[in-house]
TrEMBL record:
It holds the Pfam family Sigma70_r4. InterPro entries: RNA_pol_sigma-70_dom, RNA_pol_sigma70, RNA_pol_sigma70_r2, RNA_pol_sigma70_r4, RNA_pol_sigma_FliA_WhiG, RNA_pol_sigma_r2, RNA_pol_sigma_r3/r4-like. GO terms for molecular function: DNA binding; DNA-directed RNA polymerase activity; sigma factor activity. Signal peptide: none annotated. Keywords: DNA-binding, Sigma factor, Transcription, Transcription regulation. It comes from uncultured Helicobacter sp. GO terms for biological process: DNA-templated transcription initiation. This is RNA polymerase sigma factor FliA. Residues 20-88, 177-225 form the RNA polymerase sigma-70 region domain. The keyword DNA-binding applies. It comes from the Bacteria.
Amino acid sequence: MKNVNGYNQTLKYSQDELALQYLPAVKAMAFRLKERLPSSIEMADLVSIGTEELIKLARRYDSTINDSFWGFAKTRVNGAMLDYLRSLDVLSRANRKLVKSIDYEVSKYFNDHQEEPSDEYLAKVLNEDIQKIREARIASDVYALVPIDEQYNAICSENILENLQKEELMEIIQKILKKLGKREQMIIQLYYFEELSLKEISEILEITESRISQITKEVIKKIREAIGDING
């Protein structure tokens, strides 16, 4: 019995050591995701969630089945971080009507001034408390900045896709992307699929970060509208 306990302890130690080897990769993943999220989301929380998942995966890892531990763990760690963002449920806490009103005013303001309006401006125009404006904008941003190929689960949580399969969702996304201009297509490609930050895309295309953010939100809005039409 003593030998069995000793073996189990040694195994657990080696598994935890395996997880520790890839902790820098988890931190890099969290940093990359944090670049694409509002400042209210703490990187430390993302790292904590990712590390916890990494340790669980290390204790389940079987090298005879998977050649690479990080290859086995990478997608699952990223998924745990995205699940955490969804668990915040920021959209349900914010007034959904207010989110729509803000998106409309932001789009209108941007067309006139080529920059996004301040929270103070939106609070005045919509006759709302500035704290509510900030919460609603964060809610909108968190949803829009989750990578587009992960949007399926987020949308499903709102029961919008009860009659759709993931393949159908991706077909809808592709059709919408084809209708965009070349610059807009490039932004979506770089942002969601190449996973560049707003700053990096801004430097490549020489347009403002706020404009890039606005375009990504508009695309997500079109996808949600298309899904709504299909579901009636």
